[in-house]
Amino acid sequence: xxxxxxxNLILSGKHGVYxxxxxxEQEFVVDIQLYTDLKKPGETGGIQDTVDYSKVxxxxxxxxxxxxxxxxxKLASRIASKIxxxxxxxxxxxxxxxxxxxxxxxxxxxxIVRTQNEN
Length: 119
Known about the structure:
This protein has a 4-stranded antiparallel sheet, covered by helices on one side. Helix 3 (53-65) runs antiparallel to helix 4. By secondary structure, it is an alpha+beta fold. The protein contains 4 helices and 4 strands; from the N terminus they run βαβαααββ. The chain starts with a strand and ends with a strand.
């Protein structure tokens, strides 16, 4: 299976369990991997035959920047669900989110994997 990906997408949002995390924007690093068949776009060279990663980036930006969630697990799930709804050709999506500003020593985060069948 082939992969389209976005790595190290830096976004700001107000997400976290503690009220202070939801009052002030903090940085999140998002990685997205989309599992799909890229044979046709590899042959045609046409954007209409593939996943437009700029549209995937916009989905992630809208969700992270325009909502507030207690858990980044929920944030990642929302991103995955919206991507799978937008692109039926994607068989599986992996979304990783890191909270880079919460600790001085280490970076917590999550990775979720969803399939078209689970959506």
